[in-house]
Amino acid sequence: MKNKSRKETVLSGFFIALGLILPTVFHTFGGGSTFLPMHIPVLIAGFVLSLPFAIAVGAITPILSSLLTGMPPAFPVLPFMVFELAAYGAATSLLYKKFKLNVYISLICSMLVGRIISSIVVWVLATFFMAKLPSPIVFITGAIAQGIPGIIIQIVFIPAIVFALEKSNLIKREGIIV
């Protein structure tokens, strides 16, 4: 059990590092909010890691990124990104590992859950903290419309990566092998 926990800790650090590096590269070329690069390692972490580790990767990644790079801005973007990405990690891990849904259904449902959670947090921020944010419906519509290239990348590449990891026996639904 200790060995599994150690492996998941190391892999969590790897996914967090990817979540810091990919956005920096994409933002250098002006495609950060369009291609959603921070979402990719968090979603993959959900397929690879157990629930608590997947949630931690989702929550920690945007916080560290904000502290180290200023992306996302601390307010009002960081709070809803923390909840959105933590929801991605949680939903992906639960749907794929616990409920044994296929990769595509797990991924798409997780993406929907994350956006719903994000829109709820946007509503809370706008209602109770007077954040200058659009209504949740306008927010989620805009986020999806702007993020279509990133959503396509996620739907194409994340399942391919998960299948490759499974085929090479690096991961199984029950846990990490390596």
TrEMBL record:
It comes from the Bacteria. Coiled coil: none annotated. One of its GO terms (molecular function) is transmembrane transporter activity. Gene3D superfamilies: 1.10.1760.20. This is ECF transporter S component. The chain crosses the membrane at residues 12-30, 42-65, 77-96, 103-131, 137-165. InterPro entries: ECF_trnsprt_substrate-spec. Keywords: Membrane, Transmembrane, Transmembrane helix. The keyword Transmembrane applies.
